[in-house]
Amino acid sequence: MAKAPAILALALLAACSVPQRWEHRTLAPERWKSDEAACRAEATREVDRDSAREQGYAVTARESRVNPVRAQMAAFETTKKTQALVERCMKANGYDQARE
């Protein structure tokens, strides 16, 4: 029964990590990948910096074994924050999310 929260956390994390495609009115369609990579790198740096400031340390491997749900939820929050920053960066660079 203790595995149920862990499985739920992993399912939520997987659902939020669906790759997105972007479109720009004036740039070549192939360019969005490199622009998104630059936005993602900056977002990751910002989230890592903020996490270190807020917590003072990263979730350790030992802590992950002792409280795996907490570690998974921390990873989920990190992913969510990173994705929001990537979206903001891409929109600031003139991109819109592609319609499937």
Description:
- The chain has a domain at 29-97.
- 70% of the residues lie in helices and 6% in strands.
- The protein has helices at residues 3-16, 31-55, 61-66, 68-92; strands at residues 22-24, 95-97.
- A two-stranded antiparallel sheet has the order 1-2.
- The longest helix is centred in the middle third of the chain and has 25 residues, at 31-55.
- The radius of gyration is 16 Å and the shape is elongated.
- It starts with a helix and ends with a strand.
- The mean pLDDT is 78.
- The amount of helix comes to over 70%
Low-pLDDT segments: none
The percent range for strand residues is 5-15%
**Major sheet characteristics:** 2 strands, antiparallel
Q: Compute the average pLDDT.
A: 78
Compile the SSE list and pairings.
Layout lengths: L2 H14 L5 E3 L6 H25 L5 H6 L1 H25 L2 E3 L3
Antiparallel strand pairs: 1-2
Helix pairs in contact: 1-4, 2-4
